[in-house]
Amino acid sequence: MTTFTKWFLLNAVVFTAAFLVEQKEWITLVVKNDASYISIVIMSLYVIVSGYVGRLCYLADKATKGREREDILRRMDIGWFAGEHFFSLGLLGTLVGLTIATSTSLTEEAQVSQIVAGLKNGLNTAFFTTICGIVFSLPLQVQLMILKQELEE
After folding, report:
1. What phi, psi does 112 have (nearest 5°)?
2. Could you give the CA distance from residue 13 to residue 79 in angstroms, rounded to a whole number?
């Protein structure tokens, strides 16, 4: 089985899972409740970088010379950088969410419902961005491992 076929099948599974998750409106829930919009950035970057890795998989199947394979290995670093930093973006969203959660004024004039609403918004942002960072980092790293295995043979 070619590297591109493996990449394609993995992405078919990922996008089918995303479709099924959206049928439960979970992606919509994440987007609506993320005050920082970092989860949208993570999802968008996944699509872009995954497409880039797919192109590298296609080129790896065509590459025959050692020099071409070394060039593809070097170009893979962009994918590894993105995959590792999805976690960082998720943690950044966690910090933004916790900042939102704790920014509610605790004066005597503040009503409990306002304080709870601020906590809910902040914690939603914190949890959803962390989940997006983890969930989208893993399949991208699997794609890169498949490509690396092909290039090192």
Report:
1. -60, -40
2. 19
Q: What are the tens digits of pLDDT across the range 92-103? A: 999 998 888 887
Q: What percent of the chain has pLDDT over 90?
A: 63
Written as six digits, the tokens of 78 are: 């962009």
The single-letter code of the amino acid at 66 is: G
Angle, CA of 83, 78 and 58, to the nearest 5°: 100
**Which single residue is written with the structure tokens 């902040």?**
122
Residue position matching structure tokens 């890795």: 53
Residue written as tokens 């049928």?
23
Q: Which of 91, 101, 144 is nearest to 122 (CA)?
A: 101
Nearest to 41 by CA among 76, 85, 75: 85
Phi first, then psi, for residue 130 (nearest 5°) are -65, -45
